[in-house]
Write a structure and sequence with these properties.
- Helix 5 crosses helix 6 and helix 7 runs parallel beside helix 8.
- By secondary structure, the chain is an alpha/beta fold.
- Helix 2 links the parallel strand 1 and strand 2.
- Helix content is about 40%, strand content about 15%.
Length: about 260
């Protein structure tokens, strides 16, 4: 999958599928399923590291996980999140870290959060040959400023978000994530842009959708956000399998003679 192919899908009215993935095993399954895009998200801070937010994730963390993902897949377009602190201090930092992420992982693009304040680094990354995906709405790296995880883009904030989306596209972003925004605003943004908008909690009118893999597969017992649909209930399946494994080990029925070497 390439940027040109993603744009073509959007132009043809074909929906784009995107899923977060953090390791080679799941990347190979995502590849086999024909998913268009993989996001190596800084959500790994919550999902893989057990943190309460994404703020502690480092550039080294995302590089490690992106390397794992790239070893497991060949078809999806792989985007890597630029973590908190990797582009906020200066545009120079952002360009340096963006280039490093692509060089050391073999991934295809980076994603960063924010609107008008990040336009400079977006332009410079694109000029340097680093494709950039934008991210507006609920931006988890700003969770403390936003006072928690809440729907964004309501009231007067809708116009700011809309203008930020236009500005990101003009700055060279090849695509945009909209997270937790009203459906009508997401549609308005997508209708105004030639580039594909990928929604998460933004309604069905965007060019594509993204979910966290573990949410999609029902691998966690935590309360799910409104926008998450569980396409499986693997938490129960995995727990049951592990209980059976433990029981058969304790009973001495695993391994059997046929599972032993002679």
């Amino acid at each position: 999958m390439t940027i040109a192919q993603l744009w073509a899908k959007k132009a043809e009215g074909k929906k784009i599928s995107m899923i977060t993935t953090y390791d080679a095993t799941f990347a190979s399954l995502v590849d086999a399923a024909g998913i268009d895009m993989i996001l190596v998200g800084d959500s790994l801070g919550n999902v893989m590291q057990g943190g309460s937010s994404t703020l502690g994730v480092t550039v080294d963390d995302v590089i490690y996980h992106a390397r794992c993902v790239m070893r497991g897949c060949s078809s999806p377009f792989v985007v890597v999140d630029m973590p908190f602190g990797s582009y906020q201090v200066s545009d120079e930092d952002g360009v340096r870290n963006g280039i490093r992420i692509l060089k050391e992982t073999g991934a295809h693009a980076v994603k960063l959060e924010g609107g008008s304040r990040v336009l400079g680094v977006v332009r410079r990354l694109v000029d340097a040959g680093v494709p950039v995906m934008g991210h507006l709405g609920l931006t988890p790296q700003s969770v403390n400023v936003l006072s928690g995880y809440r729907v964004q883009g309501k009231g007067d904030d809708a116009e700011t978000l809309y203008n930020d989306a236009l500005a990101l596209a003009q700055a060279g972003a090849f695509s945009l994530v909209l997270e937790c925004v009203p459906r009508d605003l997401a549609k308005r943004v997508q209708d105004a842009l030639d580039i594909p908008v990928v929604g998460i909690g933004a309604g069905p009118d965007t060019a594509g959708q993204v979910l966290v893999l573990q949410d999609c597969l029902g691998m966690t017992a935590a309360k799910k956000p409104k926008f998450v649909r569980k396409f499986a209930s693997l938490a129960e399946t995995i727990t049951d399998a592990l209980r059976q494994y433990a029981a058969e080990v304790e009973a001495g029925t695993f391994p059997s003679d046929s599972e032993s070497y002679h």
